[in-house]
Amino acid sequence: MLTYGEGSSDRPRRSGLSGRLDRQALIGGSATPFSKGNYEANYTIKGVVIGGGYRHEIAVGWIVVGSGPSGNYSYGEIMGAGFKAASERDALYVVSCTFGVCTRMTHSPSWLLLIPARLDALKPSGTCQALGYTGALYTGVAGQSAELIGSIPLQSAGNVTATTCVVNGVPLTIRITTTAALSGKPLYQSILDINATRVSPFNGDTYRKILAEVKG
Questions:
Q1: pLDDT for 112-122, tens place per residue?
Q2: What are the angstrom distances between the C-alpha of 215 and each of 110, 157, 171?
Q3: Which residue of 21, 32, 60, 135 pairs with 17 in a disulfide if CB–CB is 3.0 to 4.6 A?
């Protein structure tokens, strides 16, 4: 079983935002119980593809992401495939299961990024609200992108933009929009929404449990 905790509609994961976001994020006038280096966040992931007069909505899945002094961990279900992962030093250990068949892998820790590295230099564009917190809104543009998120098996190509609401260094909402065109005429637009449903401090027990399981 890959599920930890209750339910599977809201779980978390780790983000690769730069330290600049940490310094500039707003805290809404009161201390938050989490920070970029000490959090566990549950996210739901939904997608929309628009083109040719059609609109198709996709329930991509859910993820839980934890980041703390010991390391990072994540688990969830993406497009029907369950996974769990934990980092130790410079290695990320991953177990992915589809239809009861599980595979062990080792990746770079960047595999857990919620936002592509090309979009890491996001620009401040105002304030935002998420889960009752006031945060800093950031937007970014990256030209062509063949792979939006390493751990989420969705691929697309086109003009990519990202918008994220960051609270105390933690992204609580992320929207990645890809617009594809041919000879100046729009072909389709895809929108990926990653929204936190809960955020709390890092859970050391969960990290140690997942690390032991994924390392075998």
A1: 766 654 555 67
A2: 18, 34, 28
A3: 21
Q: Are 192 and 47 in contact (CB under 8 A)?
A: yes
Q: Is residue 9 part of a domain?
A: no
Greatest Cα pair distance in the chain: 54
Tell me what percent of the residues of the chain surpass a pLDDT of 90.
Answer: 44
Do 174 and 163 meet the contact criterion of CB atoms below 8 Å apart? yes
The CATH number covering residue 170 comes to: 2.50.20
The total number of structural domains in the chain stands at 1
Quote the domain boundaries for residue 172.
Answer: 19-215
Residue 20: φ, ψ to 5°: -60, -35
Alpha helix locations (H) across the chain? 19-24, 204-215
User: Average per-residue pLDDT in the chain?
Assistant: 78
